[in-house]
């Protein structure tokens, strides 16, 4: 079984807690901000923000498992634009959901060739009727 250090209790746990209901949890002079904690397999600690130093894109907090993952589950995308690097159902800001990488991207990938469609902020292989694929900007226009 995998265990992780929980900074809110200073104990080892097999599942990192969700502190969303707490405003603050103070234990032994250690102040922990409210919010979800994610199991970081590299450090074996429950963290608020999954680390950036793992692989090319870093890791993202998966709310379904409370773990830091390199690749978000189906129908969710790693959003580096959020402060805490979560897996999200809808990308934030002006970024596109890319199914090939499960990441929120500013520019859709050239391989496989996809184009950003601002109608639903996703990367598409074929632009909708009435739009054309701009291979320079990688968007549907």
Question: Would you spell out the secondary-structure blueprint of this structure?
Answer:
Elements: E1 4-6, E2 11-13, E3 24-27, E4 30-33, E5 38-40, E6 45-47, E7 60-62, E8 67-69, E9 77-78, E10 87-88, E11 96-98, E12 103-105, E13 115-117, E14 122-124, E15 133-134, E16 139-140
Antiparallel strand pairs: 1-2, 3-4, 5-6, 7-8, 9-10, 11-12, 13-14, 15-16
User: In terms of structural class, how would the helical and strand content be classed?
Assistant: mainly beta
**Number of E strands:** 16
**Beta-strand residue percentage:** 25-35%
Indicate the overall shape: elongated
Task: Give the N-to-C terminal Cα separation.
Answer: 51 Å
CA-atom Rg in angstroms: 18 Å
Order of helices and strands: EEEEEEEEEEEEEEEE
Work out the helicity level: under 10%
Average pLDDT, rounded to a whole number, is 85
Low-pLDDT regions: 23-34
